[in-house]
Every structure is written in C-alpha cells, then in structure tokens.
Amino acid sequence: MLRATGWTNRELAKMTLYEGIGLALLGGLTGAVAGLLVVLSLGQGVLHGHLLAIAGAALLATLAATALVSAALAIPIRGLSRIAAAQLLAAD
Questions:
Q1: How many whole angstroms separate alpha carbon 24 and alpha carbon 38?
Q2: Is this structure's pTM higher than 0.85?
C-alpha cells in the first residue's frame, strides 16, 4: 500500500528493517529484565557478586538476537521489493 502512494523500495526496506530491529530490542530487553527478576527471586544469596555478569550475559543475548532478526529480515525485504504494487493491490 505504501508503494502505491509513492514510497520507494529503499524507503520500505529501511522502514521494515527499523521496525524489526525495534521489536527485537523491545522483546529482548523485556525478556532479559523478566528473566533477571526471576533469577533474582529464585536465587537469593546464590548469585551474590555475580549480578553484573548475569546482566551482561542477558544484554549480550539481546544484542545477538537483534542481529539475528536483522539478518533474517533480509529475505522478506528482498521478496517484497520484487513484487509490483499493482500485484499487491489486486484482489484474488
């Protein structure tokens, strides 16, 4: 629909990539915080002094997942850029 209103393939690809990265970061950080809270509540006293390492690992996992999502988005972005706007809007 956006291509029919004048958006270029490049603009659509950038928007799709930014949206995917934003959702991956939001989901990853939410999951990391929730996981840290569960670990802290279950491991009281066991994790004494290791909280920074665990938080670092959670942040690293979030960044790795975001990179994976960015790489995985390359396939649908390429596929969408090959479809004509008229074909997307045509009713089957």
A1: 21
A2: no
Tokens linked to 65? 């997942």
Task: Give me the residue spans of the domains in the chain.
Answer: 3-89
- Which runs of E-coded beta strand occur in 1-92? none
Here the tokens at position 19 are 């949206």
Most confident of 42-46, 81-85, 87-91: 42-46
The Cα 25–Cα 37 span in angstroms is: 18
- In 10 A of CB 85, how many CB atoms? 14
φ/ψ region of 49 (left if φ > 0, alpha if ψ in -120 to 50, else beta) reads left
Of 19, 30, 33, 32, nearest to 70 by C-alpha is 19
CA distances from 35 to 63, 75, 80, 85 (A): 15, 30, 35, 43
